[in-house]
Amino acid sequence: MKLNQQDTPLYARLIQFSEQHPISFHVPGHKNGSIFLDDAKNTFNHILPIDLTELTGLDDLHAPNGVIAEAEQLAANFFGANQTFFLVGGSTVGNLAMILAACSAGEKIIVQRNSHKSIINGLELSGAMPVFIAPLYDESVGRFTHPDIDTLKQALEIHPDVKAVVLTYPDYFGKTYPLRQMIDLVHSYNIPILIDEAHGVHFSLGDPFPPSALKLGADIVVQSAHKMAPALTMASYLHMKTERIAADRIAHYLQMLQSSSPSYPLMASLDIARSFLASISPTDIEAVKTSVMQVRKSFALSGFWNLLPITEFDDPLKLTLSVKPGLTGFELAHYFEQGGIYPELATHNQVLFIHGLQPFEKLMQLRKVMKSVMDQLKIIESHATIEITKMFSKKMGTLSLPYQKMNQHKTATVSLKQAIGKVAAEAVIPYPPGIPLVMKGERITGDHIKIIEQLIIQGVTIQHRDITRGIRVFTGQIKEKNT
Prior knowledge:
Layout: H1 9-18, H2 38-44, H3 67-79, E1 83-87, H4 90-102, E2 108-112, H5 117-126, E3 129-133, E4 137-138, E5 143-144, H6 149-158, E6 165-168, H7 179-187, E7 193-196, E8 220-224, H8 225-228, E9 236-240, H9 247-257, H10 264-279, H11 282-299, E10 305-307, E11 318-323, H12 329-338, E12 345-346, E13 350-354, H13 363-377, E14 396-397, E15 411-414, E16 429-430, H14 446-457, E17 462-463, E18 471-474
Parallel strand pairs: 2-3, 2-6, 6-7, 7-8
Antiparallel strand pairs: 1-9, 3-14, 4-5, 8-9, 10-11, 11-13, 12-13, 15-18, 16-17
Helix pairs in contact: 1-10, 3-10, 4-5, 4-9, 6-7, 11-13
Family: Belongs to the Orn/Lys/Arg decarboxylase class-I family.
Protein name: Lysine decarboxylase
InterPro entries: Orn/Lys/Arg_deCO2ase_major_dom, Orn_Lys_Arg_decarboxylase-I, Prn/Lys/Arg_de-COase_C, PyrdxlP-dep_Trfase, PyrdxlP-dep_Trfase_major
């Protein structure tokens, strides 16, 4: 039977199987939902019958040749890939796999410095030698965005033996950049370019969204279906469109990194999300555009923040509020949450709201909460803001201590002030967005510590056991490695 983009072969097979009311003498232990906590049954009873295992006819994620293979092929066709892998461990597992497949211990790889922590963890697992290229600080949006092509070109000229280049596109806030020029540059060295496109699964819809990294020629692209499409949390895709890296290597690392008991509801949601995206019509897009403009108009009516404008490089579904001096994004987000409206992300100076792929229907409620927020902001005290323009002062650099040598050094926990000048033995990661402020193996600067202290004061969540107790550093003399 020939499949089309409206079909959902994996989801349909799961429904068909569950409707036969099969008798379970297999895992999982809830036995198709018959064994479950009574108080929770009403919430879970629709999903448990399809929470199955690798039974006859249901295929196997790690050796797909049936309905999972069909679902992955439909995804590849829709997104324009040669091959698509379903991921049940989030974009994290895709980022890990593509780095492990691209380079081995001791080999060089060029990486955008403000990458997600999963990219950095992939570097450590591989034992690769990263060459970091710093992002530009964009005054118009008040944050670091992407590296410029001149820095990438310089890195390639100095390190023509790198095995891959890893970039993020778009950033968390939906901002893109002229990626095709960078792809063409990297490919002129016959080097693969790997893209963390976690926030761009919907870019394949075309206008008004920026072009997808696959369309622009990237070799491997990882997308979080759950971020912008209607998929369950952790459901993601890895797309390949290259001969520079073997698909077998990706498959090998995915079967190592992903669960041997992958969630069928997660995989089914990937099937459904792709079908949903494929079914969106031009009329649907126009309705979403109209809704976005209405929401933007509502957000624009305040003296406490600026709504950042949308350019051709921006995802229109991302709405970013830049707070006025004396206020923090964390405070603004807190007041919205008190009114029952939960933004995606807050930073020291911005709050990110994400519009969905359907019209927003609670505009009056939004405006009511917004009025309450502004009333509360009139009476709070203003305070100093964080200076972050020096976070990535070096255009290009490497770790002060390579991953392969870290096990040769002892570590100790020291106070924040004592850590200045020492090499970090652990990462310091404000979350979200999950971009390391300090990386393991990186030399800690006074600017790092100033920012950390301000983040602590403002109550930012930092993924660290207890940053107030100090930072774990490598002991002994560590000579700086020249780039």
